[in-house]
Write a structure and sequence with these properties.
Structural class: alpha/beta
Helix content: 40-55%
Number of helices: 29
Strand content: 5-15%
Largest sheet: 7 strands, parallel
Oligomer: single chain
Low-confidence stretches: none
Length: 772
């Protein structure tokens, strides 16, 4: 096919779409089901209608081929585990008794069966459920969900493409099941898994699938020769099937690297590549392998992870370069649109000038369609769209709203000394022990306490004008009083004020810093039914006034025990926002760090002796390629130290991280120079404690003993057992006892019981230590 005919054949498509609905209907239906207010048929009806709405929106916008299989009640990787029959033994009875309840049991756990481990999906803030596999795992095909979704789309007379997690990525994301040797490699199960995928492909072909997309984002990471050989074998076997749909192998989030020649040679009909995160690298690699003769290329030229309008002329230039490198070039976003909000036109409080710069999922869909039209018909066919796009880009580039000279002068004056504590850790630790006088194995929580219906109602009433600020603050004071009283009664050692006044750990601060924009409807799925509204980092950042001091000092006035000041760190403020793309991330991080440094110093001046600066996103933002790690970790750790280094030696700095793989950033954790770190550890059975010990981590740590992302209440014996396992790696004088994460999403009954058990476990193990 010539370049001209490849352009004429260009089509618009997407890999996935936001699941929740405009009003988060899916969240409400699922949580209603969990509480018994919605039955299974009503939940399924809601899901059916949401899929129908999504597909119709896409088709009406001009998308030629809609995705199926991207919709999920909880997580698409968990759906894949169901599809291939990888059900943990502890959940098998629940799944056999009721498939839907068993599915949620794997996701959330039940009292006698812990859930699957949860961690971040590559370098995004989306969480997936980690498959558990063993040498005895017997895969079986269950394509019910995938076949039903495709059938629904075809019944609407739509051209549809099922989207599945590819077999290689599925195995690379998996972990050894509990009790299985840690060195077991799930990839050794590939030959056992491929016939199951073959059966699913056959089932989809029978229903009417012309194409099936197999997502292999794990192949954009550094891969060994054995792993690349496994990918070659997988697609040789699947491509060699005689009766199957056409196969599109999709990668995203980074450059495909050494995996590109492997997939280019595979007997599949198409590849999908990311031309936003790694445009130059993927272009060079495509040229180096001689293009994709005889294959289709789906070019992800619209950023699926950020919310700024696309530079249409730049994207068209990239697409034009790709013509001639494949039989057909189609246009797509760089990844699933799951990672962005649904519709920017729903925002009423954002200044119209700035709203012109934003593109959520529906706007990105329009950009994709415009680019496909322009690629196929020439720029004259989209002249009006190009002119409007040029005006939007020029408006942003020339706007005084995006630059603050005072902020830039301050960041330019930062020196290396600003990022170093005045004394080394051993001297600080001695000063902090003398000042705080905490017991062995001190107990604390991560920060937030349950956000009750009453608290959410109070916030809604304040926004609606049904109560005034004085009444709202009275309610917050009462809630803080209850939280402090409960912690004292339970016996926790370092308390928190519970964050009753906070809507979200990033949004709360973004709303008080200049340079950030808040959305009203910009919901994005984090995990399951947990949705967040990432703020938009649109311009230079500064702190007009103190943000947390008043409520922290109020809480401290209610107790003689230390109350932690709670802040969100600079890397997480970036990672869980939609960041500006017109300057280096390091520059933006330095601006945020200086604003937070002012808050840290004000907390200390107000008498706060323990200050926690959370950085749960430090690991998730780690680039996917090892060669890119040093530059990122240098500015990320510098930003944390710049935030925290201005305090006295006897002020104890904590940080917190959760739901990520920490083993490959232990040195960076060390480089933060925090006095205490708390980390998720319950679902991973204290793996992080062993990783810290292996590194020789010299400071205090609190690997979590209570998994807060499950409604189950761990018994005191269970918590004590985890604590003893932690002591195998971390000396008692440096070990803290805490939950995995904040308690915002939990209900009070389970929170009370779990924290009481946590304190009991700490006391039990203290007694054992004193007796030994």
């Amino acid at each position: 096919m010539t370049a001209k005919s490849a352009a004429a054949a260009a089509r618009a498509t997407v890999y996935g779409y936001p699941r929740q609905g405009q009003g988060r209907e899916l969240k409400k239906a699922i949580e209603g089901y969990w509480k018994g207010r919605v039955d299974a048929d009503a939940l399924r009806a809601t899901a059916t209608e949401l899929r129908r709405t999504n597909w119709r929106q896409l088709a009406e916008a001009g998308i030629h081929e809609v995705p199926t299989g991207d919709f999920s009640y909880y997580d698409h990787v968990l759906d894949t585990s169901v599809m291939v029959g990888a059900i943990p033994e502890r959940h098998r009875a629940a799944v056999e008794a009721d498939a839907l309840d068993g599915y949620f049991a794997m996701a959330r756990g039940i009292q006698d069966a812990a859930p699957l481990e949860m961690t971040k999906w590559f370098d995004t803030n989306y969480h997936y459920l980690v498959p558990e596999l063993s040498p005895d795992t017997a895969f079986t095909a269950d394509s019910t969900q995938q076949v039903a979704a495709l059938g629904q789309a075809l019944a609407l007379c739509l051209t549809a493409r099922p989207v599945l997690v590819g077999p290689v990525t599925y195995l690379l994301l998996a972990k050894p099941a509990p009790g299985v040797a840690a060195d077991f490699d799930p990839l050794t199960l590939l030959d056992r898994l491929l016939p199951v995928y073959a059966q699913v492909l056959t089932d989809l072909r029978t229903v009417g699938a012309e194409w099936v997309q197999l997502d292999e984002p794990a192949l954009v990471q550094d891969r060994t020769a054995a792993e690349l050989n496994a990918a070659a074998r997988a697609y040789r076997d699947l491509g060699g099937l005689t009766d199957r749909p056409k196969l599109l192998v999709a990668s995203y989030f980074d450059r495909l690297g050494d995996a590109l020649p492997v997939l280019a040679k595979a007997p599949v009909e198409g590849l999908a590549l990311d031309f936003t995160e790694a445009a130059a690298a993927n272009l060079d690699a495509l040229a180096a392998v001689g293009g994709l003769p005889g294959k289709s290329l789906v070019a992800g030229v619209v950023n699926g992870r950020n919310i700024w309008v696309n530079d249409l002329e730049k994207s068209l230039a990239t697409l034009g370069t790709l013509l001639g490198l494949a039989d057909r070039v189609d246009v797509a976003a760089s990844c699933s649109l799951l990672h962005v909000p649904l519709d920017a036109t729903a925002e009423r409080d954002i200044e119209p000038q700035i709203l012109r710069w934003l593109a959520f999922a529906r706007q990105k869909t329009a950009e994709i369609v415009t680019l496909a039209k322009g690629l196929g018909g020439g720029t004259d066919t989209i002249a009006a769209e190009l002119a409007a796009n040029r005006a939007d880009l020029a408006s942003r580039a020339g706007s005084a709203l995006t630059h603050d000279p005072a902020v830039r002068a301050r960041t330019g004056a930062v020196t290396a000394t600003d990022g170093r504590r005045s004394q080394p850790y051993p001297e600080r630790a001695a000063a902090q022990r003398a000042h705080l006088r905490l017991p062995l194995l001190p107990t604390t929580t991560i920060g937030s306490f349950p956000q009750t219906t009453e608290l959410r109602t109070a916030r809604a009433d304040l926004r609606a004008g049904r109560i005034d600020s004085a009444e709202y603050e009275d309610r917050i004071r009462a809630e803080i009083g209850e939280v402090i009283s409960f912690q004292e009664k339970t016996g926790l050692d370092v308390l928190v004020h519970g964050e009753a006044e906070r809507n979200d750990m990033v949004q709360y601060f973004a709303e008080q810093l200049t340079g950030y924009l808040a959305t009203q409807h910009g919901w994005v799925q984090s995990y399951g039914t947990r949705y967040v509204r990432p703020p938009i980092l649109a311009s230079d950042i500064s702190r007009p006034e103190a943000m947390t001091v008043r409520w922290t000092t109020y809480a401290q006035s209610l107790t003689t025990k230390p109350v932690k000041g709670m802040l969100t760190g600079p890397v997480t403020m970036l990672a869980w926002s939609f960041v500006r793309d017109d300057q280096p991330l390091a520059d933006t991080a330095r601006q945020v760090a200086l604003a937070l440094r002012d808050e840290v110093n004000d907390l200390e001046a107000a008498g706060t002796s323990v200050i926690q600066v959370d950085e749960p996103a430090l690991r998730e933002t780690l680039p996917l390629r090892a060669s890119d790690h040093p530059e990122y970790l240098a500015w990320a750790t510098e930003a944390f130290r710049l935030t925290t280094a201005g305090v006295r030696p006897d002020t104890q700095i904590h940080t917190h991280m959760c739901y990520a793989e920490f083993g490959d950033i232990v040195q960076a954790i060390d480089d933060l120079d925090a006095d205490v770190i708390s980390l998720e550890a319950a679902r991973s059975h204290m793996q992080v404690a062993r990783e810290l010990a292996g590194h020789g981590y010299p400071r205090e740590a609190g690997p979590g003993v209570y998994d807060i992302h499950s409604p189950r209440v761990p018994g005191a014996d269970e918590a004590a057992a985890l604590l003893r396992r932690g002591l195998e790696a971390i000396p008692a004088e440096r070990l803290w006892v805490n939950p995995d994460c904040g308690l915002k999403t939990r209900a009070w009954p389970e929170t009370r019981a779990s924290l009481e058990n946590l304190v009991t476990a700490a006391r039990t193990v203290r007694t054992e230590l004193s007796a030994s």
